[in-house]
Protein 1
Amino acid sequence: MFNLPTYPLQSEEESTKTAYAPLFCWDIANPALARRILIHEDLFALNKLIELYNWSLDLKIKQLLVDNYTMIVTNLNQEITWVSNGFESMTGYTSKEVAGKRPSFLQGKKTNLKTKTLIREKLTNFENIEIKILNYRKDGEAYWCMVKIHPIRTKNNVVTHFIAIEKEVH
């Protein structure tokens, strides 16, 4: 019998006990499987945040990730604390590049001022908002994005973070 190569199912930062699964050649060549692994990683990370902050999050997260939505979690200062795996493919930025930045860094010269003002007002009042906004990728290319932002509350009804659910639209 031979030993199969393995890959970690979660980052070493997340756990000192890393689970391993065999890596087969069809895993590399199968984009559907790779996508399922990324969705699993996102769900795992979000579940850890839900536990850590005692959030009462009623969104259908798994289905949103399956439907290719990108997610961004910010703290109350609107600094990015977590992004889903789809964020890099949509924007060109890695999670390390955006950690601690405000999502407004994606806005640019042609982003509508009224849209930016409305988002700011809604967040200040801890209100949900759904809006279409012009953002910019790392390479400077503009893209339209449908954004749904929700304040995240604890089970004691205290707002601790925001979650933005985004999808590129045309």
Protein 2
Amino acid sequence: MADKLSNERLKKIEFEDRPIDVAYGLASADGMWLQESNDPQKALIFPEQVDVSCDKSTKTCRELTVTLGPAGGMVSIMSPEEKDWPIISWDTHGLLASYGPDNSKSAAASEKCHSHVLTMTFISGAVSTSDIPTHEKGCEEFTETDSYRLVRGNYYVDTSPNNDTDKPTAKK
């Protein structure tokens, strides 16, 4: 659950991975980014619902991310964000895309200090991303790779009176 959001009504439902259908040079997957590490310090600050769509002809994957955040005891939908991933390779097994680091003056420190890699394995349906430190001058605080996997499913807000739609119902 979204520990840092701390709203008991925000819940998630997860589904099994499934193969990624690759038709006409298009591939897509959606779900939630969850950290690979068991270290709570590596968890995303706010939960993210994502859709990743890849097009072999344009050699681009586009990630649409909707971040959920707190707003005075409520769950708020933050600004959606789009990110393009240039595809480095694509074969019958999957694809690899990468971008970064961003050396522009307006880029955040984490974007200047990381390369980002996206992998998609078609048969298993596995999708993951890694933020890899560049070890450049000024990036000393970024020393570890952070990896996230796409878990099929979505977040929802439990509006039941007892906040218990995810609990088994008792048989009478």
Protein 3
Amino acid sequence: MEEVSCCHCGGYFLPDPRQKNPRYCRKLECRRARKAAWQRAKIRADPDYRANQKRCWQDWCKVHSAYWKEYRQKHPDQAKRNRDLQRMRNTKRRNRGRGDPAGMKGLMIAKMDSSKCLGSSGRATFSGQFWLVPVIAKMDALKVNIYGIPASCE
């Protein structure tokens, strides 16, 4: 039997003859990499699996709502690194948005609830159908209807 190179660690291993096309060795790290690769491919290809994973992630986040806050407190170096990388992504996105006629493409960073279009009364004055499409936050686009409501009917 011929040795095969592992896709993850690059080491050579003797494949199990019962496996059709082995690409990963039996090390724990490589098995985890194989599972992660399978899961990424499954999420891309199967909408039901993707919806189930999203629902499970949302349920986990509800139960562990303080996890990320605690993580950032316990790992300040990682939090700083993430902030620096996010700052770089934001700058890159802003520079990309400069060619946009409205100049807004690079400035929208998941601020879907903020409205700066104010009329003379200080209230928002727009209505119609809008697509809420976050740039950074990973969530689905949502079509909404927004209607202006008069302040009083006197």
Protein 4
Amino acid sequence: MAFKFGAAVLGGFFVLLGLVAIVLPGPLTIPPILLGVWIWSTEFVWAEKLRDRAMASARDAWESAKKRPIRSAVIAGIGILMAIVGVVYLTVNILN
């Protein structure tokens, strides 16, 4: 019972951290959410099903990216560039 409670609290913390990171500027929004779901999946069946579905989606995305590596690299590069521009823009506007 203590493990279930600990997994619920710790997993919830990471999921909430990821959700807050979506709203706030900065990278790495998805990894805390995935970590929270993984922690939950150690104790809860519903979270294990959610984790399995996320893993299948990740595998499909990886296979799709391997079929078109240049396109995938360009899209990823544009996304990273946009994130950097957004962070710099927000930082400049906040400091002024």
